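Deliverable D4.2, example record:
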Amino acid sequence: MEILPILSTLRRHKTTAFLVILEIALTCAIVCNAVFIINQRIERIHMQSGVDEQRLLHIALANIGAGKDEKARSEEDLAALRQIPGVVSVASVSQVPFGNSSSNASIKLDPKQRIATTNATNYFGVNITQTLGTQLIAGRELTADDYMDMEDVLNAVARHDPKAIPKTVVITQALAQRMWPGQSAVGKQLFMSDYGFTVVGVVKDLVRPSIWDDSIAGYSMVLPMRVSNGEYVVRVDDPKNRERVLKTAVAKLKEINPHRVVLKQHLLSNMREDFFQNDRAMAGLLVGVCIALLVVTALGIVGLGSFWVAQRRRQIGVRRALGATRVNILNYFQTENFLLATIGIAVGMVLAYGINLLLMVHYELPRLPGIYFPVGALSLWIIGQLAVLGPAMRAAAVPPVVATRSV
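Output generated by the structure prediction step:
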């Protein structure tokens, strides 16, 4: 197929050719970035939490009026929850994964550091890692000897008394690799403010309750502090028992103290669904935008192709009369579309890169991986060829006699 005659013809239809190129370029730029964002959202939705989500319940309560002291009431609640058939483990906790709010702390390798090494969330509560179902991969779990009451620790911090502050901590593998890359974290020391903590155990994963940056979603610590704030995590033996246990647990807690208000009662799997609701909505919206853009682009190519066939009917008839076969005419229009699509894709890639830079600056999106460019180009070439196939076949069907009738 001769390229020069095609280029010569396109130069006589600059406006139409420009519109096709512009349409393909915009589609390439937007779809590449949209697909990248969709993949980012899907990865975020499916991120590992490190906990046994299908067997966990979460209940948060608030008291009204006078009652027993917090610690005694919490022990009474925990004892009642453990008696419910199907309950495997219970913990009074400070926060839970996908809870939307979190307690965080800056941590350092050296107490004299002016800038912290990183930031991590703090989980407090007796038996919390066992109840959540985290996987210990190094060292040991926290033991009864490690724990102190939260109230006593807060008083010790106010007095600047390091002796009454816990000395041990369990951290996640992600945090361990951030603090000591390529080394075992067990036995190492990290510092929060001026207080040192020895890492006694490493769990595989434990996601933050509130995730604002996916790259540090797994930076979590478990400190040995007893909390009595009316927030409980319950682990059941079978996911089928979750609904029943949750209903029974809430009834038991209300029976112990009718003057309290149930602030939250969730299956943890539902908390995850709610937490990523906006991400799913965004991914769905972008999928719709991509499909709409591709359909509009394909329809545009079909429309312009049909217009060109109608406009060049006499020219096609002349070519057929001079010996061009149907295959020659078909290849002509397909090659013409391929050239236009290639120019549009090249421009679109530059636009896609520019849009990605803007998103990186203003929305902290990662750099667009190079694989999206060839995949996007191939997709648009295929769509372009399929879209132009109908008009090209109609052009190939033009009989040579059309040239004679037009004279």
